Amino acid sequence: MVIQSPILKAALEAGRAFLRPPVATAPQALQRLPAMPRRAAVRVPIRSIGPRHGERISAHLLALGPHDRYLRFGYAANDEQIRRYVDGLDFERDEIFGIFNRKLQLIAMAHLALSTDPELKSCAEFGVSVLAHARGRGYGARLFERAEMHARNEGVDMMFIHALSENTAMLNIARKAGAKIERDGSESEAYLKLLPADLDSRVKELLEEQIAQSDYRLKVQAKQFWDWLALVQEVRSGVQDSRHGIQR
User: Which end of the chain, N or C, is less surrounded by CB atoms within 10 Å?
Assistant: First the structure.
């Protein structure tokens, strides 16, 4: 029987191809295997923090060791100088971003300081610090991205970092973001030209802040529960000890 219809001919050929044993070579067969899905990057909740977190900011900076203080501030800041720095933060003008752990400890923070110079109104300086036990997780880079997005949305054209040349971690973050780095002996300046704000950057910042606020509230509730449970266990242990004392 001769099949005239091209549609039937195509269907018949497809059926034969399906029943035919595979003839692909091993490399070709491997190329057709579906690629393993990449693990999605973990989003780190970063929230904007205000004056009511002053004690946590102080605790975070005071927990830095002498060398870390030297890298963060450019000099070996003592406790009193750090407290003065925290007291002088202008939460109305500048923006402070933080990453909290489950115990509500501020483990990483960034300070985006807007310029007060009338001729440099569209500039902002970035500073960051991460506690020793929380390093190696990319928190510094994430805080830089968060600050960069906020700066764009605030109309900032240029973001810069003033750091010691030996602070390679900070300079690497700026370099990977595309910043131009100028070295002058023991000190370096990194400059990053920012793109204008758009709908995507504004919506993204709003969404990230809402997620971070929700994450923080959940951590507060969880900590309150565990603190209450620890208190109940402490009271129960005290009651049991008193009973044993009476029995003796």
Answer: N
Residue type, 228: W
3-state secondary structure of 190: strand
Q: CB neighbours of 161 closer than 8 A, spacing ≥ 6?
A: 125, 126, 127, 170, 171, 174, 179, 189, 190
Residue-level length of the chain? 248
- The single-letter DSSP state of residue 195 is P
What's the angle, vertex CA 138, arms to CA 55 and CA 71, rounded to 5?
A: 60
Q: Decide if 139 contacts 44 (C-beta within 8 A).
A: yes
Report the C-alpha dihedral over residues 224, 226, 232, 237, rounded to 10 degrees.
-150
Cut 0.85: pTM above it: no
pLDDT tens string 138-184: 999 999 999 999 999 999 999 999 999 999 999 999 999 999 999 98
